[in-house]
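Dear support,

I submitted the protein below through the web form. The confirmation email said the job was done, but the results page showed an empty box. After a refresh the structure appeared. I'm attaching both so you can tell me whether what I see now is the final result or a partial one.
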Amino acid sequence: MAGNDLGGLLGGLLGGGGQSGASGGGNILGALLGALGGSGASGNGGNPLGGLLEMLTESGLADQAQSWVGTGENKPVSGEQIAGALPDETLRKVAGQNGVSPEQAADQIARTLPQAVDKLTPGGEMPAGTSLEDLIKQQSL
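What the results page shows now:
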């Protein structure tokens, strides 16, 4: 399944070596981005990251999302904020795919999403015209 492949790539990007939960965070982010990619929230030609950031921005998390993309310090976000920003159905689907509760999924996303977005936007902006998989592979090298 594409979500599992994406999760593995994200886990590697987040430094799966030695960090407990890093690949789990990648798996949950992979499932989230896979779910959003299939729901029409994806922008940038197969890159659902832009759609996710837009969703967060519209939910009042613009400062946090922008800090992750920008080159400064990453502002934290809570699981409760993530849960409020994502569609309930998407969060339930992601949680089910990872064998956790929706609350646990939101907490894992809140812990790993800032770092993932930061690493996927090294120039301080969203790359255009690149698939998420290609972008992760470029940053993992």
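Response: this is the final, complete result; the empty box was a page-load delay. Residues 49-69 form the longest helix (21 residues).
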